[in-house]
Write a structure and sequence with these properties.
two-stranded antiparallel sheet; alpha+beta; 2 domains; 4-stranded antiparallel beta sheet; binds zinc ion; 164 residues; 18% helix
Length: 164
């Protein structure tokens, strides 16, 4: 885009509530901000959580609307659905949205939160063949065998044993 000095001087609001009037006055805006993870503490289901977020935004002014292109990058901690171990992952997402020139505030925070919420992987596995935890003693079966006997889920199996 252009080399407008305003682009670099603009103080990005931490809550990402941009004033439409500012964007129009500047004729567009490009900015990058690192955001506090506290804004995203409730986006994932615990114990999964977002630990770092950087947002890059590009606002283009058209005749009746403002086009916003965004990139979100950061780190998140996700729990294995089988063994419950936490793994740190990098993530990167992009979004594209238009806003009316007449709206007072452009709420990028809402957009970022929605984009991040869609990326949560509640069936994440630390490895495809994760053995998980023993349902009886809780031992992580990836690290050691515990020696518990597997529980039979069929009531008939137990009856069979009785009448032998
Ligand atoms: Zn696992
Ligand atoms: Zn066990």
């Amino acid at each position: 885009m252009t080399e407008n000095a305003f682009y670099h001087d603009y103080d990005v609001p931490q809550d990402l509530q941009f004033k439409t009037a500012d964007i129009l006055r500047l004729g567009g805006l490009e900015c990058t901000a690192q955001l506090s993870p506290k804004y995203f503490s409730d986006v994932f289901t615990q114990p999964n959580k977002i630990t770092s977020v950087t947002v890059s935004l590009s606002f283009s002014v058209a005749s009746k609307e403002i086009l916003v292109k965004g990139k979100i990058a950061g780190k998140r901690l996700v729990q294995c659905a089988r063994c419950l171990k936490m793994t740190e992952q990098d993530f990167a997402e992009e979004f594209l949205e238009t806003y009316s020139n007449k709206s007072e505030i452009i709420d990028i925070m809402l957009l970022v939160r929605q984009t991040l919420a869609l990326t949560e992987d509640i069936r994440f596995l630390c490895k495809p063949d994760c053995k998980g935890l023993c349902p009886q003693c809780g031992q992580d079966l990836n690290t050691a065998e515990c020696g518990c006997k597997p529980v039979s889920l069929s009531p008939f199996a137990e009856l069979k044993g009785k009448f032998k």
